[in-house]
């Protein structure tokens, strides 16, 4: 999944309005944010597969630190714990922990059985990715629903708040379509280097979200 994970971040803002969209993107995307770092560090491994299905181009042979169930639970506790420690905000910490773990659940639904339960453990995955149409339908609906929640639950304080957030949503949609239609990366190293740029997306979310406020907030007296 790609925009499905971002859908979780946008939707989570409705549940935890005090948490920055940037933090929520880090949470929902955490497992995929660290994956290219681990590949480039030589700690996780993958290959490129030929084929028409753009969702099945990565041969995910060895990625237990980022993507095993046990690791996902650990990352949820760690990131939720960090938020609790920094903010003393228990509901926000719970939302962040749940968003981190949601990544594993969505990957479990979409991946073919290559997701380990623990390092070296059984591989699971329900294989939604086998159908491009079904994946696009599920992710697309999630994304549209989540944007509706986000944009109805917050309002722009200024033009950055308006166009920064709309721009991020549009950019993600374009990236998704480009990924579906472009040729596979030449090798996994190239994939990982491009993947590092995903770290800019939470920054974009944080920047745009700072210029928005809860839709229920009283406008300042003029
Ligand atoms: Zn993933």
Quick structural gist:
By secondary structure, this protein is mainly alpha-helical. It is built from 9 helices and 6 strands.
Tell me what the structure shows.
It is globular and about 60 Å long. It has 222 residues and is mainly α. The strands form three sheets. It has a two-stranded antiparallel ribbon with strand order 1-2. Strands 3-4 form a two-stranded antiparallel sheet. Helix content is 64%, strand content 9%. The protein has nine helices and six strands, in the order H-H-E-E-H-H-H-E-E-H-E-H-H-H-E. Helix 2 runs antiparallel to helix 8. It starts with a helix and ends in an 8-residue tail after the last strand. A hairpin with a 6-residue loop joins strand 3 and strand 4. The structure holds zinc ion (ZN). The site of zinc ion (ZN) has 5 residues, from helix 2 and helix 5.
What secondary-structure arrangement, pairings included, does this model have?
Layout: H1 3-15, H2 21-40, E1 45-48, E2 58-62, H3 64-67, H4 69-87, H5 90-110, E3 115-116, E4 123-124, H6 132-153, E5 154-156, H7 159-181, H8 188-196, H9 200-210, E6 212-214
Antiparallel strand pairs: 1-2, 3-4, 5-6
Helix pairs in contact: 1-2, 1-5, 1-6, 2-5, 2-8, 2-9, 4-5, 7-9
This protein binds zinc ion.
């Amino acid at each position: 999944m790609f925009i499905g994970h971002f859908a979780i971040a946008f939707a989570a803002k409705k549940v935890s309005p005090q948490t920055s969209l940037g933090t929520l993107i880090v949470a929902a995307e955490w497992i995929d944010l660290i994956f290219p770092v681990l590949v480039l560090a030589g700690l996780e491994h993958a290959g490129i597969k030929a084929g028409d299905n753009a969702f099945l181009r990565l041969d995910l042979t060895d990625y237990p630190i980022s993507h095993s169930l046990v690791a996902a639970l650990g990352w949820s506790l760690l990131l939720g714990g960090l938020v609790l420690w920094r903010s003393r905000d228990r509901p926000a910490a719970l939302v962040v922990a749940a968003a981190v773990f949601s990544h594993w659940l969505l990957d479990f639904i979409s991946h073919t059985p290559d997701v380990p339960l623990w390092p070296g453990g059984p591989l699971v995955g329900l294989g939604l990715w086998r159908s491009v149409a079904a994946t696009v339908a599920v992710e697309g609906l999630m994304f549209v629903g989540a944007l509706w929640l986000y944009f109805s639950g917050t309002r722009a304080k200024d033009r950055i708040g308006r166009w920064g957030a709309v721009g991020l949503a549009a950019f993600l949609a374009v990236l998704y379509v480009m990924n579906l239609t472009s040729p596979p990366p030449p090798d996994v190293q190239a994939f990982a280097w491009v993947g590092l740029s995903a770290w800019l997306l939470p920054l974009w979310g944080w920047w745009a979200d700072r210029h928005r406020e809860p839709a229920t907030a009283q406008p300042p007296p003029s």
